[in-house]
Every structure is written in C-alpha cells, then in structure tokens.
Amino acid sequence: MYRYVPCLLITALLGITNTVIASNPSLTEPSSSGEIPVTTSSEVARTAFLQARDALEMTRSADAEALLNQAIEQDPTFALAYLYKAYLFTSLADWRKNMDLAVANKDRCSPGEQLLIDMRMTYPVNDAAKRFALTRKLVNTYPGSARALLILADQIIQRRDVTKARDLMRQALEIAPDFVPAHNALSVSYMTDQPQNLTIAADHARQMIKHRPDEPIGHIALGDIYRAENKLEASRTSYVNATEINPRDDRAFGKKGHINTFLGNYDQAREDYRIAQQIAKGNLKVVWANYGVFTFLYAGDITSALDAWNRLLTDLLQMNLSEPQLLRARINVLGNRATAAMHYGLLSIAEHALKERTEYQLQRFDTLQSANMKRNFQTGQAIWEGTLAAYQGDYTKAIERAEHNARLQEPSSNPRKLDRYHRLRGDIHLMQKQYDLAIEHYQKASNNSIRVQYGLALSHQGAGNHEASQRLLKQIAGYNFNTLQYALIRAHAIERTR
User: Do the beta carbons of residue 89 and residue 41 sit within 8 Å?
Assistant: First the structure.
C-alpha cells in the first residue's frame, strides 16, 4: 500500500459495516477509468474485495480483513485478495503464507496485478531499486490509475523529492477529484513533510469530510492538523466528532487520548486509551496500552511508567493474542521499557530489558529462511547495542556497533538505509560534546524524526548556534504528535525554550 494510508497497526476497527456499493463512488470503477484491473472469476468475490479495499483506504483494517476472507472464500485463486491480506499481516509467517498464495495465483492476473505482487516481493530482499522500477512500470502501464500514481508518490517521497511526490498526488486528483486516499496523501504530506503548509493540509482534510461524511478519517486528519497548529481544543473537538460518527473506531478514541495527554488531562487520556484498547483487535490493543503508559512519561514519572510496563507484560496474556502477536508485543514493550530506562540513566534496568527483548527477537526470527530478513535483525541489534554502550559511556564500542550496522546495510538499495546509523553516530558525538560532528550526522538522518531534531537542537546549542537551536526547540515544543521519544523529550524541549 501507499505510505499515506495510516499505519495499519494502529487503525483496526472491531465489527463489520454493511457498505452499500452504489452509494460509494470509489467502489464503482468502469473499465474506462484506467484503474488497475481486479481479476476474479466471481462477481461476489469482486464485490467483497472492492468493499475491503475501500475499508482499508478508510483505515478500517478489521473490516477489510473480514471482507477479504469473504472474497477468498468465494474465489480461492484470487491473487489480489491474498496480496491485500498480506498488507494486513500480523506475523512474518502470516505475511509469507498470503504472499505465497498471491504468487502462486499470479499468472491468472492482469499485468498490473502482477506488478503489484512483484513490488511486494522486493521487501524481503530489500531491493528498493527494483521496487522503484516496477512502480514506474505500473504507472506507465496504467497512466490513468490514481492508485498507481499514489504508489509512485510513496516511492518518490522515500527519495526525498517532496515536490515531485505532491505533483503525482495532484495528478491522481485530476483523474478522480473525489478520491479520498489522494486527499489524505496530500494532507499528510503538507502536515509532515518540508515545506509544510497546514492551510493546504486542512483543505484536503475538509475534502475528505465532504466526499466521505460517513467516515471518521477526515475528522481525524483535521484533528491532526489542529494539533500541528497547536490548536489543542479544536483538535479535541474533531476527534470527538470522529468518535460520534463511528463509536467503534479505536483510532478516534486513541487520538482523543493523545490530545488529552498534551492538554495535561492524564487521567482522561488513560480512559480514552482504555476504550481504544477495548475496541481494538490483536496487537492494536498493545499499541493503545503503550500510549497509556506514555502518559506517565509526559508527567515525568518514570517509576510509574516502568511499573505500568511490568503490568502490561503480564496483561498481554489476557489479550487473546496469537503466539506471533504475543511475541511481537513483548518485543515492543521491552524495547519501550529499555529506551525509557536509558533516557533516565537506569542502565541496569535497560540492560535487562534489552536482554529479554533479544531473546524474544531470536525466537521470532529463528525460523526465517531469508538471509536479508536475518540481516535486518542484525542491523537492528547493532543499533540497540550501540545505543546502550553510548549511554554506558563506552563510546568505542558504540561506534564499532554503529559501523557494523553500516556495513550490514551495504547490500541494500534503500536510499534511507543509514538513517538509524547517522542518528546513533549523532547521539554518540553529542554525548562526547563533539557538537560539529553530531550536527553533521544528525543532518544526514531522517529529518522527520523528532528525536533527531532534538539531538540536532542540543548540538546547535552546544556549538553556540543559539538561534538555530531555539528555532528547533520551539518546533519540537509544539509538535504534539505522540511517540515514545516525544514523551521523553517534550517537557525538556518546552523548558529549554523559556
């Protein structure tokens, strides 16, 4: 899928809605539309797939999964349905199973569907160059496909050509002015990518509301933009509107939890997250539970946060998670616990959490056949080990681990493969008070990372570049988007702007 469909791991919706195709223009695509064909022997399966695709594009992943299952039940050779099931994977085994079925039935498909499957198969081998070439071929084959243009825009944005990516998104809207995913893409881009323009972002969010008033997605997007503008009460109103449109949308309650967090209403935020967790399915329950723990970090209470993560590790057993989901959840919780402990200098706690996390990671990857996936695991481990070494003051080991990460990444064609390497090197040099070197590495890392921006601000401050430091700190203080790293630095950033 494209980047601008919000992360499926935080967008599931419990319960199935009865979508009426005739009332939804995005589900009716005449052959003259130029869209990528949907190949199936069953009209019932096709209808279920189109409903599923719409649900996925409206970020209702649980609806999408149930409808895809219906489509596959009607046509067990439906390759595109298996591909979309793979988009919703909950484990590597689940992904592999559905991709194997998509590949096995690929010859029954149109050239466009085959390209989509081939593109997805570039991820295990981390071949970004081949993926980009296949995406360009998709657009050349279907120049009238709004979806193909969005997929290419996603690849272009990963090459940091924001202007070209936005042009492609606008081309998609020229083809289909009511195509909500394209409005969503532009809204997200103008909110998060440089150069930002929150007015344009809001215009596209309102277009989403206009074209799909029955869906929370536009209200959630508008709430996000108000957050970026630091209009917290207006943001809260938008999220409340989303909960009223669909009281079974866990995202709407989770986003309301975010805004209550930033308003300092921590008890209210925890209740919002509790409701979101209750509605959500699978690993999404863990996602919202983690956000509940973050509220303690925003309040500066690391002891309560660590206690809450300990309880969560026990509570995971009551969440009806599959074994792969449970393993993934443990890895996530332990990683969060280790990161927070390192930030607060509780290094023995961090070391113990990382040791447990590594053991679970090894269990998860024990059955992997792909050398590339194993290499990805090793690159991640190098970053974790280097980060802990840096906090422990062992900068020689930290740099060695960072360089090991870079060497492992050499076969990858991903243009952003060294983002984490440069962030770690920036952190190491900042801790050593080698501010110019820190700035050099942070500027090569992802500029969308709030933690990188904070490290860059502190490095500028240490180097005496006070104007640059204050500009970054003020941006961070009004960031208002909820991540673990932001929970750890927000109060410090606000204090440093005073």
Answer: no
pLDDT digit string, tens, across residues 402-458 = 999 999 999 888 888 999 999 999 999 999 999 999 999 999 998 779 999 999 999
Q: Is the dihedral of CA 332, 337, 342, 348 positive or negative?
A: negative
Q: Provide CB contacts within 8 A for 51, sequence distance 6+.
A: 19, 21, 27, 63, 67
For residue 293, the SS3 value is helix
Size (the chain), residues: 498
Rounding to the nearest 10 degrees, give the CA dihedral for residues 399, 400, 406, 410.
160
Residues ≥6 apart with Cβ < 8 Å to 127: 413
Q: What is the pTM of this model?
A: 0.82
For residues 265 and 253, the answer to whether their CB atoms sit within 8 Å is no
Q: Which residues partner with 249 through β-bridges? A: 13
Q: Structure tokens of 222?
A: 């508008």
> For helices 92-104 and 323-343, what crossing angle results, to 10°?
130
- CA triplet 210, 182, 121: central angle to 5 degrees? 140
Rounded Cα–Cα distance for residues 377 and 96 (Å)? 17
Q: Is the CB of residue 277 less than 8 Å from the CB of residue 246?
A: no
Q: Six-digit token pair at 298?
A: 């925003």
CATH code of the domain made up of 1-193: 1.25.40
